[in-house]
């Protein structure tokens, strides 16, 4: 997968060079490229924002630097080891609190794509005409990571890139762990324990020491169900995948 990140703060993405995502890049499973939006401006102040048409507070990001940056990234070939499909449309992701909710299902869908471009805004957002123009070149998705407002979309990008890329086959060492974690089956994950069985006056549930895999699995399922009903009744009311 090829990922292009366009921002006025490209250093924000340095954490994506660490740990599993850093290793996936070294192994050629993933190519993450960062671009400074200000490199696509033409005035001496390298300005990317302007007052909102119609008045109001704050500043709006001008569409032209974004259009030039998008044209640039779409024209760049990927490195040899990163799969690219000539037919598949790239997906442009615009993080915004006014977008559809980014869920595990969205992460799964996006992990199956070959080229993602992220356009995180600062200020009051990007001139809407950029989104309309870009939809001729890409599939555009406006995504929110939750019902709260961040100072800019960069931290939302880090969250989304991590959630998406860990689902690419080969990125996580133990892929079985993906199947059992929270949200993979519509439920929150059951509680987990390790040895020793006694720790500071607390004991792990006896069933986990029974060696009976069917009983352990049934216990975990009932714990996951109980936890989901108690903590996230909104998820419990939605149809579950199994
Ligand atoms: N930008 C600001 N707040 C955001 C949010 N909640 N999700 C995605 N992008 C954002």
TrEMBL record:
Gene Ontology MF terms: tRNA (guanine(37)-N1)-methyltransferase activity
Binding positions for S-adenosyl-L-methionine per the UniProt entry: 145-150
Identification of the protein by name: tRNA (guanine-N(1)-)-methyltransferase
Main location: cytoplasm
Known catalytic reactions: guanosine(37) in tRNA + S-adenosyl-L-methionine = N(1)-methylguanosine(37) in tRNA + S-adenosyl-L-homocysteine + H(+)
EC number: 2.1.1.228
Keywords: Cytoplasm, Methyltransferase, S-adenosyl-L-methionine, Transferase, tRNA processing
